[in-house]
Write a structure and sequence with these properties.
3-stranded antiparallel beta sheet, globular
Length: about 350
């Protein structure tokens, strides 16, 4: 941790996107040398039978995954897998390549250990990224594909746009996530309605039997959110990911008026939304918790609330590459403390 704090101080002197690009170069380099990957895996990976679980027919050796947004173009899969993740979610990917929103569009808040991003689904497009994944797929870890809408596509053409990007990944993903909840594509969140969600999941289930998730915003009115999630599940969604970033700018004292906030300040808001999701849908769909999770205590809390899996992102940036290992080791201790024999026994324990 001390070594990473020193490195972090250097990285944080750079613009956030520059620092991320250097991290990408490093992890891509690791991917090219098996001995480097093995060296990292020996340091950061820790397999334990207690943490294994099967969700939607997929095997996870631990419950900690990487949320979408970090590896937008699937260039870092091998390097990231050496950091101890149980699964990786890449993207958000769109059918057509797009540059995203104008820079600067990514901001750090050091004291709050939070980020604000207005990236806008910058990515190389589904054809190029699917080709890249095809070279390593099937992979040792489950790979999720987070799917978005192109900014230039009109709302009335959104369903076809989502269908086109999904079709490019039908052979190269273990599960899929429809991202309707990013605040960084104009009017995207308007698609979080029962009519569109029904059409979306009925379409998707016509193409694949692989698990498909809906990623939900933390900013929706609760009743509306529950109706949308219920419609998604009724129309074939296998699960819900709660939550995406928030546009509640009151969480930061000096927030910008663009983009979505992630990190520690989102923790309470995201947990409250997840609690409502779990109360309504635990046992009916697989639930993945995301938003402000940066330690074992919060990860374990959401697992007991009903999460079969949890995802991190901003916490990795602020706490470093040992975060997965630390969380997993501490979860084992928490399971033992509470008398659970394994992770599966703890999922949803606070709901019973």
């Amino acid at each position: 941790m001390l070594v990473y704090k020193t490195l972090r101080n250097l990285l944080f002197k750079l613009e956030p996107e520059t620092a991320h690009r250097l991290t990408e170069i490093f992890l891509k380099t690791v991917s090219g040398f098996s001995f480097l990957q093995e060296l990292m895996a020996n340091r950061f990976c820790d397999e334990n039978e207690v943490l294994k679980n099967q969700v939607c027919g997929l095997d996870f050796y631990n419950p900690i995954g990487l949320a979408a947004g970090f590896d937008k173009n699937a260039t870092m899969i091998k390097g990231l897998s050496a950091l101890g993740f149980g699964f990786l979610e890449v993207g958000t990917l769109t059918k057509h390549p797009q540059k995203g929103n104008p820079k600067p569009r990514l901001f750090r808040y050091l004291q709050e250990e939070s980020l604000q991003n207005a990236m806008g689904f910058n990515n190389e497009g589904s054809v190029k990224v699917a080709s890249r994944i095809s070279k390593i797929y099937p992979y040792a870890l489950p790979i999720g594909i987070n799917l978005g809408k192109n900014k230039s596509v009109a709302q009335e053409d959104a369903l076809k746009n989502y269908e086109d990007v999904l079709k490019d990944f039908l052979s190269f993903g273990d599960y899929y996530v429809f991202n309707l909840s990013s605040p960084n594509t104009p009017n995207l969140r308007d698609l979080q309605n029962s009519i569109f969600v029904k059409e979306l999941f009925l379409m998707a289930k016509g193409h694949t039997s692989k698990p498909i998730f809906l990623k939900i915003s933390p900013d929706m009115e609760i009743d509306s959110m529950l109706k949308v999630c219920d419609q998604a599940i009724e129309s074939g969604a296998d699960g819900i990911i709660a939550t995406n970033t928030t546009i509640d700018y009151s969480l930061l004292s000096s927030a910008k008026d663009i983009g979505g906030i992630s990190g520690a300040v989102l923790k309470s808001k995201s947990a409250e939304v997840f609690k409502e999701i779990a109360k309504a849908f635990f046992g009916k769909a697989a639930l993945i918790a995301a938003g402000g999770i940066d330690d074992a205590e919060e990860a374990y809390k959401r697992i007991k609330m009903g999460a079969s899996l949890v995802q991190i992102y901003t916490g990795l940036i602020f706490k470093g590459p040992a975060l997965c290992k630390n969380i997993n080791q501490e979860i084992i201790q928490l399971l033992q403390r509470d008398g659970f024999l394994n992770l599966k026994d703890a999922i949803g324990a606070d709901l019973t």
